Amino acid sequence: MEALKQTRHIGFWTGIVFFALMAVLAIALESSSGGNTWLRTLNNIGIFTALALSLNIILGQTGLFNMGHIAFFALGAYVTAVLNSVLGWPIIYTLPFAACITALFAFVVALPVIHLRGDYLLVVTIGISEILRIAFVNDIFGLTQGPNGITGIQRIELFGYRFMSQFAQFYLIWGFVAITACLFYFLEHSRFGRALNYIKYDEVAASGNGVNIVRYKLIAFALGAFWAGMVGTIYAPFIRTISPGLFEFKESVLLFAIVILAGGGNIVGIVLASFLLVGMRDVLTMFGDWSMLLFGLMMVVIMIIRPQGIMKPRRRQYNAGHLVGKFPSGIGKKAGLSAGNQAEVVE
Amino acid sequence: MSLLSLQNVIKKFGGLTAVNDVSFTVDEQSVVGLIGPNGAGKTTVFNLITGNYAPLSGTVTFRGQVINGQKPYKIVQQGIARTFQNIRLFQQMSLLENVLAGRHCRMHAGLFASMFCLPWQQREEKSAVERAMQELAFVGLDAGYDNEAGNLSYGNQRLLEIARALATDPKLIILDEPAGGMNDQETAALTELIAAIQKRGITVLLIEHDMNLVMNICQKLVVLEYGAKIAEGTPEEIKSNPKVIEAYLGTSDDE
């Protein structure tokens, strides 16, 4: 593929190896006793990985502090649940609706607040997600059935195959994660992905180079929400009963922590951080009342050991070495200024 | 006809009149210097041209079209690129990616094309990288294309900003104190570079305090003081203009 020739995609191949290993691991777990619990944990991690990848577009790539991402996930799940349980649609047909309605919602609520910076945006997004959750609790339009939520959501059926067991859903969820990671990886290595980074690092310079800031920020928000809506569609039939209690503020915080811990929008970092935080939370439940205390303690330890995040933000690699020295210089034969042609490392 | 012209442009910040009724023109393929003491409103004039500020009154005309009040990203598309006085590079990104930022306004790939790696998007990306490398080579920084911009020396950061601006295919490039923080040797190289930019058919408008540089390369100078234009002309005319001498050196009470 041209994309692979053009740049050195190490991360891309790392991803392929990782997902292949995951597929093998699932088979091993399926055939072992007690493997089902682990598959369930892995599926949970998968859901959160996909969500964190979608938040990464907004927070990691564009630098917009969205602390209410769980609202988009919730909306997607509720749209699917309502269409399935009230109107009887097969789950798979609800996917585009859940995604588009969520994206539209994100676009409309982001439009008036998109110019807010840093923590101001953070506070507004918390507000948006809480308003939505409370609307679900209050059985808005008589559709969401209040605090008890919607029950009896069907399983996903694809080409006549019904994804029932944890094992089957594992492939569905992690397949979705793999596709997401792949598409977002390509997006990151493009004009679009760079524009998001330019906005994150310096809005004035980005605008001065022709980046339409407001447009890109809104698209980033809508895209992140679109994806979270789709994850919602996968999640609803996975747990079969959805209620407002699943979409509390603390879940947004967890997602936020995953993206920050990943380090500068790094996709590999997102997967690792999801395993670490979501996996840790699931495993720690065996300690009962102590679990949250231990979770907090571990967060503190991580922030002391790796304050910059698990991974370094990876600079994109461009295959431009063959172009060095090919073009004429405007300052005679001398390359660069007195400092020489190499960058000086000032640390 | 002139490439850029400002007519009676006024900009106020609260009670302060930063730019007071300034008019001047920039001819195609010339190098024009905007000089004046600190706080004379030179950078504000630049910000009015590039759309960072909108003038209170007056017009900015570029290639026969009124451009004031437009957003910066639109003005870049029309062919005005700039560098910043306090360097605004994307410090954590590579040299090449910084220059690619300049290509942004000439590329078309959107969300869908990028996500699915459409063939035309790949071709566009490839030619953008080539073009960016060309501009890096033009300022002599191509060998270090993969380095982080923040690690460059001060002088080279200024050059990188120029490369980024050139990558936007400008008709007019606006340089805000390009020699700021450069030593003599670096300034000499910069002088050569500005001449080379002019040779490419690009018009240059610059703010600079280094009078040697300004007198050497500018065909025309515009002098500002307290937001108002006090003189305009060739370097020779400006050198002997009593108002300019007064603005720069002050007058003695004895006279």
UniProtKB/TrEMBL annotation, chain A:
The keyword NAD does not apply. It comes from the Bacteria. The chain crosses the membrane at residues 12-29, 41-59, 71-89, 95-114, 170-187, 218-241, 253-277, 283-305. One of its GO terms (cellular component) is plasma membrane. One of its GO terms (molecular function) is branched-chain amino acid transmembrane transporter activity. InterPro entries: ABC_transp_permease (IPR001851), LivM-like (IPR043428). Keywords: Cell membrane, Membrane, Transmembrane, Transmembrane helix. It is found in: Cell membrane. This is Branched-chain amino acid transport system permease protein. It comes from Pseudochelatococcus contaminans.
UniProtKB/TrEMBL annotation, chain B:
SUPFAM superfamilies: P-loop containing nucleoside triphosphate hydrolases. Belongs to the ABC transporter superfamily. GO terms for molecular function: ATP binding; ATP hydrolysis activity; L-isoleucine transmembrane transporter activity; L-phenylalanine transmembrane transporter activity; L-valine transmembrane transporter activity. Pfam families: ABC_tran (PF00005), BCA_ABC_TP_C (PF12399). Residues 4-251 form the ABC transporter domain. Gene3D superfamilies: P-loop containing nucleotide triphosphate hydrolases. This is Branched-chain amino acid transport system ATP-binding protein. One of its GO terms (cellular component) is plasma membrane. It comes from the Bacteria. Keywords: ATP-binding, Nucleotide-binding, Transport. GO terms for biological process: D-alanine transmembrane transport; L-alanine transport; L-isoleucine import across plasma membrane; L-valine import across plasma membrane.
